């Protein structure tokens, strides 16, 4: 796009310099010219044509520049948006990274909590084990008593 | 047992919750640093903002005015004390209106507590001062002033002492200025919270060293927990003193009074800064650091009796399992279960409004009656009836739901009664006096009136634990008691005007329990587990006491175990780490008791021959003498080789009358006074004098002789003979005085004695021909 616009502007400036060269014939020196329809013209019809052309081309150029500006504006907006998005993504990434770090910590504390609960359960298990042992002992004693009783009878 | 916790999804308070307090069993107030006070109604699950305090009030502590203050009962607490960081405390009504704001301390007021009767208020401040205020907020005194902030303060059970923290130390200071202050180092870090229970008189403390500890009121350490991950920020006793809760960061723990932990919860609460038990002791609320208020209620309590196992599976549901056939019954209740007890074939359950009585034979149709006041704090069961204790009084009900009596005694305060200080049997209720801990009130169960002359039983030491035996006639009712020295004593409850004899039967006894069906007593003596097969032996033949004991090494039970019950032949013991241990006891003594109770003496002797155990023989000997069954006694004494006693029994066989026989049985047990009384009442003056002569009780013998103007010469003669034998001279003035005018003539005396004895014989023969005597003696003569 840039190159195209540059070429156009170069062409326009070349045209201007050739117009100045052509105005050097006698009528022309008086500043009068005829056009194709033989009407008197103050300006060399060639120049006039060129001027119109130039005018048109300038108009086109301005349009193109306007278009260019619009496009560039859109581009800038887009880039800005992209930048914003990148920023949020970056923040997200940082957040995620932190979260990850804290999850590790959380897990640790969770682990700690579970460990405490396990310790509690272990203690309960130990209590049950002792109770079971005591009951087994009672059972053994009772069996022994029954055996003895039967023997004595 | 465990805690079932509930937390809302989103915290109601915006800042940390600093304190909570219950007004009724279902209504809680919570204060937070966002200046709001919320009211939580648990029945409707509604939470309403009561008031938004001024911005400069940051609440720290809240305590509702006690419900049963000053003898008057209120259904609801009406006013509370709210302390704040600006150095003031505020009296706040239920509607949230600040009735009064009082400038109390420099810096924050860290704690405020009403005493038990609501007559005084104590506040503790960051400035290290402790101040006592009247109910209306007038400053009474500044109790103490120290260099460090006082983080927590608690009243003693009688509201006459204050416990407070001082850095790492705990201090008990009586209100009386001259009384002794107890102070001890309790923790390795700053102590943050303390509580003192009025029922069991135990102290609880938690601190920055991440430990919680249980102390008795003398500052002796009973339990110290292992170190937690975070500082202990709150501790609280349940109202009945059986449980307590401990709060820390993300931690809520339910513990037994002996310190071991029933259950641990790890809710997402942040630090729990304050814990409060509801009045009925079924649920707790905690003030959480993240703005939550956590609620937790106690479920899965267990009761066991013989082949039944009952679990409180939900708040209103119980599951009964019969272990023999695995049959499961589910009991549903309309309201929350508050207390339950399973013994003697009956389950008694109290809810907030009603009492349910189930028989173990039929779980379908309970007997239901309404309760006057909701919160029953204690249920005691005997074979024939049960006792309910609530905030207002003590009620005795039959298992048919009939109100039998409402025992009353001076200084009745039901909030301090626990199973150690009140005991029930079929005919008697014993209650330790709160005001004088050396005394025990004895109340007739059926009438609710004091027993006998209405005097309470007095011991020489403070009594720690009492228990009545469960079997036998009312006249033989015995009270076992453990005093402050941990000595075990036994006393007859019905003494009929006789002097109270409290006899020591054991030392270093930490815990004891009577058998549920016979009068056997078990206990843990120092390191020995001991069963007193026949405690009554001390009233019969004290020498036999040690022969009737069964002992066993108690090292299995670890340090300071507690006997839960003694049902049939099994003793259930709770070790200090919380595990249950069972131990078996030989069934023979039980059978022997049964035989003796039905007077089947031959069977009893046969049983002893079969078992061949000295202890059993000794029991039988004592039982036989107690029942005046001389033939059996002779056999039993022979078996344990007590020759002199057989001789004495043989001598008794030749006694001329029933009265003197009775008297000699009394003498056998060492009751000289009773023996003398029996003889004098029967007019057998000579026998009474002879008794004293035999015992070398010269003064009393002479006194009797002179008083009744007979046998003075007999006394003098025996005295003379005695002095001659020991080649001593008479020094007793009275004897010198009487011997002057009296001539000693042995022949005459012998004749007189002969005459007395024959006279007695004649008389008893006459009596036995007219009435049929139940005693075996006259038939033998």
Radius of gyration of chain B: 32 Å
Biggest sheet of chain B, open or closed, and with what strands and sense?
4 strands, antiparallel
What's the tally of helices of chain A?
Answer: 3
Q: Can you list the strand order of the major beta sheet of chain B? A: 1-28-27-26
Percent of residues in β-strands of chain B: 35-45%
Global shape of chain B: elongated
Uncertain residue ranges of chain B: 771-781
**Terminal Cα span of chain B:** 66 Å
CATH class annotation of the domain at 16-298 in chain B: Mainly Beta
The helix/strand series of chain A, from N terminus to C terminus, equals HHEEH
On the 0-100 scale, what is the average pLDDT of chain A? 84
| Uncertain residue segments of chain A | none
Tally of individual helices of chain B: 14
Second-tier CATH architecture of the domain at 16-298 in chain B: 7 Propeller
How do the strands of the widest beta sheet of chain A line up side by side? 1-2
What does this structure look like?
The complex is a heterodimer of chains A (153) and B (781). Chain A has a two-stranded antiparallel ribbon with strand order 1-2. In chain A, helix 1 (2-22) packs antiparallel against helix 3. Helix content of chain A is 88%, strand content 3%. Chain A has 153 residues and is mainly alpha-helical. The longest helix of chain A has 108 residues, at 45-152. With 781 residues, chain B is α+β, with helices and mostly antiparallel strands. Among the domains of chain B are: 16-298, Methylamine Dehydrogenase, Chain H (7 Propeller), CATH 2.130.10; 299-406, 6 Propeller (Neuraminidase), CATH 2.120.10; 655-767, no CATH class. Chain B is built from 14 helices and 55 strands. In chain B, strands 1-28-27-26 form a 4-stranded antiparallel sheet, with no helix packed on it. A 4-stranded antiparallel sheet of chain B has the order 2-3-4-5, with no helix packed on it. A 4-stranded antiparallel sheet of chain B has the order 6-7-8-9, with no helix packed on it. In chain B, strand 18 (191-196) and strand 19 form a beta hairpin. In chain B, helix 2 (588-597) runs antiparallel to helix 3 (601-611) and helix 4 packs antiparallel against helix 5. The longest helix of chain B is centred in the C-terminal third of the chain and has 25 residues, at 746-770. The model of chain B is unreliable at 771-781 (pLDDT under 50). Classes of the chains: A mainly alpha (153), B alpha+beta (781). Chains A and B meet through helix 3 of A and strand 25 and strand 55 of B.
